[in-house]
Design goal:
The complex is a heterodimer of chains A (264) and B (306). Helix content of chain A is 20%, strand content 34%. Chain A contains seven helices and 15 strands. In chain A, the strands form three sheets. Chain A has a seven-stranded mixed sheet, sandwiched between helices. In chain A, a hairpin with a 2-residue loop joins strand 1 (4-17) and strand 2. The two termini of chain A are 32 Å apart. By secondary structure, chain B is an alpha/beta fold. Chain B has a single domain, classed as TIM Barrel (Alpha-Beta Barrel), CATH 3.20.20.70. Chain B has helices at residues 80-92, 107-118, 146-159, 175-184, 223-236, 250-258, 269-272, 276-290; strands at 8-10, 13-15, 19-21, 43-49, 62-65, 68-71, 97-102, 125-129, 164-167, 189-192, 196-199, 201-202, 207-208, 214-218, 241-244, 263-266.
Chain lengths: 264, 306
């Protein structure tokens, strides 16, 4: 258990698109322990309004020193976060939860939608760092091209085998949903492992294709969460068979095997 | 430097300080070990336990509100057997008092919980959650009727050798009357308040934000109500009162002590700041030292009225 509380210091706050920000924090304890797919709980203000920390997945770590978060302004907490300048201290807890497990996989496809792309970059870097990296196809989806910013380039720069884009409005790449890209890019002859993170309907589409094709699928889920450390039990989700005790996203996840959870 | 004297006494139990953690906000303590020196705390009240495991309510279970949160977890817990076999070993080693919160749907369930936990080593006291509906009496909560509150207290006390603390619901007309019933039933202490019933609606979908429709409000938003109730109950009963409700800072804790609480429980603040409980212990120590008090017990009930 390497989780801790740490005062992160803001190094950079970059606005990538009208509502999308990339926050780089100096937080060596968390940076040196984090694994792709894990998250941090960020206290956006010490003034208790909003009261709760915000769960944000780790976009990447830089040299065991820095933690980078990619987030979209969605409410009060993230709006406060977006206004914080470099030098400001921010209380973090983490790294939390279980990340992706890709040991020994030879053909990997990462499917990200919107802010769900955030943890996949950390994962791609980890995969491509190997001396003989496995095949790694990246499929990115967004509502429109401006929401993607430099992300497609970022994945290409670190050596992803292929990077393909889909936008809802057709402003970049395939005009449609990112899940629709799977059949044309995941060829036969490989036992694919698909890792996905994004809006629920998108992941549901990815999961159903993986099931049909017999591909292994790992999903990173998001829920309301108060504590992030399995004390509040607020982040319950039903198991695949809809019976037995609920799973908890903060502790059992946020990354699950697709077949463990119910796709309602 | 002489270490500040933070000791308080509840019944026959001496606590090293008055700071406990509230049930359902601190897991089974292990979850907070990366953040808190557990042995620095006055005690830990663990997640409520029922005879059988409970699945809890479907999601969504929580929603944030102004200065607080609503929850409808639905008393999810591992059940008595697994609690004893899986959680107690760790709890016995944390170096502070362990109080087990219990809940049931009938008098018999409360009795059995009380009896079986008496046989378990390492438990200092029971905290009885009487906010559950009495299944046999048409679902009315034990905690909303003084006669039923007295009956459940009496039933637990008769079947356990452990000190009994009864946790009161604020969703009643006269909480002092319930407290008197609990005192008459033989409780060594009362703790209050549990969460206040509340609700939130998503105006876009026109649906309740909680699957359970209603839930319990907690956090700083409820502190003034909790403080008022603690003050009222402290005057109504002779047994010690444990204050709960939105306590987030040392100053909050001191307010409850001044209002008459002998100890306090830190709840939702644990989610916001996992170190909150320990920071309050440290803050109380500073307060005692700076004000040259013999001990924190001098503060208890020290409210000066106009």
């Amino acid at each position: 258990m390497n989780q801790c509380e740490e005062q992160g210091e803001i190094v950079r706050q970059e606005q990538l698109a009208p509502e999308i920000f990339r926050l780089t924090l100096k937080a060596p304890q968390i940076a040196s322990n984090a694994r792709p797919g894990q998250f941090v709980m960020v206290q956006t203000t010490p003034c208790y309004d909003p009261l709760l920390r915000r769960p944000l997945s780790i976009h990447q770590t830089i040299g065991n020193e820095q933690v980078q978060l990619l987030y979209k302004v969605a409410g009060k907490g993230t709006r406060i976060l977006a206004a914080l300048p470099p030098g400001q201290k921010l209380n973090l807890t983490g790294p939390l939860g279980h990340g992706f497990d890709l040991a020994g996989k030879q053909a990997i496809c990462l499917v990200g939608g919107g802010m769900g792309i955030a943890p996949l970059y950390f994962l791609a870097r980890e995969i491509l760092r190997a001396t003989t990296p496995p095949k790694c196809i990246v499929l990115l989806g967004a509502r429109t091209t401006s929401e993607l910013g430099s992300l497609p380039r970022d994945f290409m720069d670190i050596g992803a085998t292929e990077t393909h884009i889909a936008t809802d409005d057709g402003s970049l790449g395939h005009h449609g949903f990112v899940a629709e890209l799977l059949p044309q890019h995941l060829g036969p002859g490989h036992q694919w492992t698909v890792c996905t993170c994004g809006p629920h309907p998108m992941m549901k589409g990815v999961v159903s294709q993986c099931r049909a094709q017999g591909w292994e699928c790992q999903v990173s889920l998001e829920t309301m969460m108060a504590c992030g450390i399995s004390a509040c039990l607020g982040c319950a989700i039903p198991r695949a068979d809809l019976s037995g005790p609920y799973l908890h996203v903060c502790k059992d996840g946020p990354v699950f095997k697709a077949e463990e959870v119910a796709w309602l | 430097m002489i270490e500040a004297n933070l000791r308080v006494t509840i019944g026959d139990l001496v606590f090293k300080n008055p700071v406990l953690t509230a049930s359902g906000t601190f897991g089974y303590a292990k979850e907070f070990a990366p953040y808190v020196n557990l042995h620095h705390l006055g005690g830990v009240v663990v997640k409520g336990i029922s005879l059988e495991p409970r699945r809890g309510n479907p999601p969504p279970r929580i929603v944030e509100t102004a200065g607080g949160m609503l929850n409808a977890i639905g008393l999810e817990n591992v059940g008595l057997d697994r609690f004893i076999t899986e959680k107690m070993d760790y709890l016995r080693g944390i170096g502070t008092r362990v109080i087990v919160n219990i809940l049931g749907d009938s008098l018999e369930e409360y009795q059995e919980l009380g009896q079986r936990l008496s046989e378990v080593e390492g438990i200092s006291a029971l905290e009885v959650n009487i906010s559950c509906p009495n299944v046999k009496k048409g679902g009315v909560a034990f905690g909303t009727d003084p006669t039923m509150a007295e009956a459940v207290t009496r039933a637990v006390c008769a079947h356990t050798s452990l000190p009994v603390i009864v946790k009161l619901s604020p969703n009643v007309n006269d909480i002092a009357q319930i407290a008197r019933g609990v005192e008459a039933g033989g409780a060594q202490a009362v703790s209050l308040i549990n969460t206040l019933l509340g609700m939130a609606i998503d105006v876009k979908s026109r649906r309740p934000r909680l699957a359970n429709i209603v839930g319990g409000l907690s956090g700083p938003a409820i502190k003034p109500i909790a403080l008022r109730m603690v003050w009222q109950v402290a005057q109504a009963v002779k047994i010690p009162v444990i204050g709960i409700g939105g306590i987030t800072t040392t100053e909050d804790a001191l307010e409850f002590l001044l209002a008459g609480a002998t100890a306090i429980e830190v709840g939702t603040a644990n989610f916001v700041n996992p170190r909150a409980s320990q920071e309050i212990v440290e803050g109380l120590a500073r307060y005692v030292t700076e004000n040259r008090l013999d001990g924190i017990s001098e503060v208890i009930g020290g409210l000066i009225l106009p």
